[in-house]
Design a protein that fits this description.
Helices cover 48% and strands 19% of the residues. It is α+β, with helices and mostly antiparallel strands. The chain folds into two domains: 28-232; 243-362, Immunoglobulin-like, CATH 2.60.40. It is elongated, with a radius of gyration of 37 Å.
Length: 366
């Protein structure tokens, strides 16, 4: 091949390479743009559907939360007129509701980042649950109430059977006001989530949900006034000196009467040399009995050495407790007078059911 012809072919190849490379780049870019456009077209309806589904399920939780918020506001304004048991039940009820709503929100949102929209929705319900739990803890501390354990409790729930730490009126007011600020932040976050969701694909709508309808109600001044009313309430005053005998368990068990008719105040036991007594105490008052004391006396009849044993225990307000067993040595074919009495102030020991006297007969050995 002659050099001129080879040179012309070389120039044509160089010209083709200069044209082919940019054309290839254009083709690649066009393919990428087309793919992205196709993905956007395909994901748009999916995102819209997902957002609408989230809003539909979230609306159920939000509406339940709004109803609970209304209950909390009503309770805050009326608690001074309730009795202790009703107030405790009402507080436990709203805590249980918010814990359940927090759990529902977490299940609805799945594994999400706390910073994204669904994570913020969960944060709203968590904040409300924490605030209500804090309010209950503050009121319990003021009055010495006992929150009931909440099932499916989360980290925001502080309920339990143990006595709360007692709080002054000032401490109580401070804690309730702080809970109000937490509720205010939750309301703002919810409003932001609601607005953002409306502008996402699908334009999904969440219902309005506000717990703080009047900000001044949760300010420290009004809260302190309400706390003073609760502390001075006659219906919420603690009731003491209410320990009674719920049951007395005796071993061996009493034998049935041969005539089929039991003799009041008399129990006949099978032949034995040992009698074990267990006393169940109930606290009908509204404060704990940390040192409930029962005196158990067994006196041989007609005469003999009297044996007296004392049993102590903690009986939480509104509950019962079984004290440690008391064991007495006895003899077959003998009778004893059993006396069980709750020890305490005169007003307490005068209560019906605070003492028991019974004749215990031990059957003779065969």
């Amino acid at each position: 091949m002659s050099p001129p012809r080879a040179h012309r072919r070389s120039r044509r190849r160089s010209w083709f390479a200069r044209i082919a490379r940019p054309a290839a780049v254009v083709v690649v870019i066009a393919v990428l743009i087309g793919g992205i456009t196709q993905i956007a077209r395909q994901s748009g309806p999916y995102d819209a559907s997902t957002n609408r589904s989230f809003a539909a399920a979230g609306a159920v939780v939000a509406n339940e939360s709004t109803a609970t918020g209304s209950s909390v506001r009503h309770l805050m304004g009326t608690m001074q007129g309730l009795d202790r048991q009703t107030l405790q039940v009402d507080l436990d009820d709203v805590v249980a509701q918010t814990v359940q709503q927090e759990s529902q929100a977490a299940q609805l949102s799945g594994a999400t980042s706390r910073g994204d929209l669904r994570g913020q929705f969960v944060a709203v319900l968590s904040g409300r649950a924490l605030a209500v739990s804090d309010v209950r803890a503050a009121v319990d501390g003021l009055l010495g109430l006992h929150p009931l354990a909440v099932t499916e409790a989360t980290s925001t729930d502080t309920g339990g059977s143990a006595a709360p730490a007692l709080l002054s009126s000032t401490e109580t007011a401070d804690r309730i006001a702080a809970a109000g600020r937490l509720l205010t932040r939750a309301d703002r976050t919810y409003a932001a989530v609601r607005g953002a969701l409306l502008h996402l694909p699908g334009h999904a709508r969440l219902p309005a949900s506000r717990w703080i309808t009047t900000a001044t109600t949760w300010a420290i001044g009004p809260v302190a006034t309400e706390v003073d009313l609760v502390a001075a309430s006659g219906t919420l005053a603690p009731v003491t000196n209410q320990l009674v005998l719920r049951a007395v368990l005796i071993s061996p068990a009493a034998l049935p009467s041969p005539t089929g008719v039991a003799t009041p105040g008399v129990s006949t036991l099978s032949p034995t040399t040992k009698v074990v007594l267990s006393v169940v105490l109930s606290n009908l008052g509204s404060v704990d009995a940390p040192d409930a004391t029962v005196q158990i006396t067994l006196a041989p009849q007609p005469t003999g050495a009297v044996v007296t044993l004392t049993r102590r225990g903690v009986v939480v307000a509104g509950s019962s407790a079984t004290l440690s067993p008391a064991t007495f040595a006895v003899q077959p074919a003998h009778s004893y007078q059993l006396t069980i009495a709750v020890m305490g102030p005169q007003a307490e020991t005068a209560l019906a059911g605070s003492s028991l006297t019974e004749t215990v007969q031990i059957a003779p050995s065969t």
